Structures are given as C-alpha cells and as structure tokens.
Amino acid sequence: MDKIRIINLTVLYGEQPSLQSINLSIPEKRITGIMGPSNSGKSTLLRILNRLTDLIPTILIRGRVLLDEEDILLPKCDVNSLRARVGMVFAKPIPLPRTIYENLTFGPRIHGVKDKYLLDQRVEESLRAAILWDEVKDRLFESALKLSGGQQQRLCLARTLAMQSEVILLDEPTSGLDPISTAKVEEALRNLKKDYTIILVSNNTKQIARISDKVAFFLLGELIEVGPPEQLFTNPTEKRTEDYVSGRFG
C-alpha cells in the first residue's frame, strides 16, 4: 500500500528547473532511499513533502502530491497539521537550546498535550525508539547541547517520534557522524519502519543499499530509475544508474 503518491511533479526556482515530471510512489511502513549526486533535486523533494518550500518566494510547483490520497499542495491543506504528520530530520542536528526533556515535549505541548504522564510516556518511548534512552535517562533535565553530535541527531529523530508523525523524512542524517553513531541511526530506522513510513536521502550509496526497501535514483532533476535495491545495485536497467552506483561519477 502506498502512503504517498507523487504525480507529474515539476518544480522551478525562477526559470531554473529543480525537478522535472516526477512520478513516484512511497510505500507505507517501508524505507524508501533516494540517491543521486548534488543538485539532483533530492532535498527539494523532501521539502515539498512537508511544505517547507512555502518559505521560498520564487518557487513554482506543478503536479500533485497525495498523502493518504489527499493532495497536500492544495491551498486548503493545513500546513501545521501536515508538518505534525510528516516530520523532518536534517543533515545537521538542530536541538533546541533547552533540556533534553523540553526538546521532546515542546512539539506535543504546542499541539495540545498537557498531561505530564502522557508527556513522560512520549519522552521515554521516543528516546527508546531512537536508541538513546539508556544513554540519557539520567540526564533528561540537562541541556541537549551537551550531547555528542551523534546523540543530538538521535535526539532530533526522537523529537519527530514524540510528535507521533506518520512519515519521517531524513536529509543526509548521518553525513557528519562517525561509523558507530551512523550504525545506531540505521538500527533505529530499521526498527521504526514497522510503524512509520521513512524516506531517506543520502549520498552514501552503501547506506542506501543497506537499509532501503525501495530505491529511487535522481539525476539533474529527473527520476532515472526506481526499484528494489538488489535491482539498482546489481542489475540496473539504466546505464546512468550503473555509472553512478559503480562510482564513475557523483
């Protein structure tokens, strides 16, 4: 079953195309990996999925993006509700300059969760899901800025989970992390896919191959090829895909 369907999506910054006639389905409760060299439109696609592109005055978007068959690009879409349903984790961790506990309860409080028992429950559940609970359970009221880079990134993932989002978008989430921290993030994502729809953008083709259930290869704003990882990495149908995964460019 598809959680998201992208239909004839074209995006222009001024007159410069960023995405061209993209058609892509995102399966529910799976990890969809999106790979490609820089300036392929990968990050633009993620930002469209929770309407962060609304902040760009020169952007022009055509096409449809259906989340549970509802078009999120229509003016009637409630953007605040959308961003609660579709969470985002960026390449650089951006914890709030508050305690670990406050980082995780800030979003739920804004959306009306006031009961301390429920907030405590969300904090523990989200930290456990992000494989961070055992490392911080005795430090919940310390500043999140004291955490290591890898811990901060998992905190940002936990913050999305505390909002009980349905879709998790990740834009190069391990690009600045060491191998141990990267492995913990990947382990968390594998565990989370049973409950969440995950879209992972990464320039690390080995990471895409390791944890994705479906892979899409983008090049210069075009969707070149999409399929299971074993196909794209061992028997791609497009020469451009073969050249990219074999390291001839990118």
Fold blueprint:
Blueprint: E1 2-13, E2 16-27, E3 31-35, H1 42-49, E4 59-67, E5 70-71, H2 79-85, E6 86-89, H3 100-110, H4 116-129, H5 133-136, H6 149-162, E7 167-171, H7 179-192, E8 197-201, H8 205-211, E9 214-219, E10 222-227, H9 229-234, H10 239-245
Helix pairs in contact: 3-4, 3-6, 4-6, 6-7
| CATH superfamily membership | P-loop containing nucleotide triphosphate hydrolases
Beta percentage is 25-35%
Q: How many separate helices? A: 10
User: Strands of the biggest beta sheet: in what spatial order?
Assistant: 6-7-8-3-9-10
Order of helices and strands: EEEHEEHEHHHHEHEHEEHH
CATH architecture: 3-Layer(aba) Sandwich
Number of strands: 10
Low-confidence stretches: none
Radius of gyration: 18 Å
Structural class: alpha/beta
Main pleated sheet: 6 strands, mixed
Helix content: 25-40%
CATH level-3 fold name: Rossmann fold
What count of domains describes the coordinates?
1
For this structure, what is the CATH class?
Answer: Alpha Beta
**Could you tell me the mean pLDDT?**
96
Task: Give a structural overview.
The chain has a 6-stranded mixed β-sheet with strand order 6-7-8-3-9-10, with helices on both faces. The model has no long low-confidence stretch (mean pLDDT 96). The two termini are 32 Å apart. It has helices at residues 42-49, 79-85, 100-110, 116-129, 133-136, 149-162, 179-192, 205-211, 229-234, 239-245, and strands at residues 2-13, 16-27, 31-35, 59-67, 70-71, 86-89, 167-171, 197-201, 214-219, 222-227. Helix 7 (179-192) links the parallel strand 7 and strand 8 (197-201). It has 250 residues and is of the alpha/beta class. The protein has a single domain (28-54, 78-218, 225-245), classed as Rossmann fold (3-Layer(aba) Sandwich). Helix 3 (100-110) packs across helix 4 (116-129) and helix 6 runs parallel beside helix 7. Helices cover 37% and strands 26% of the residues.
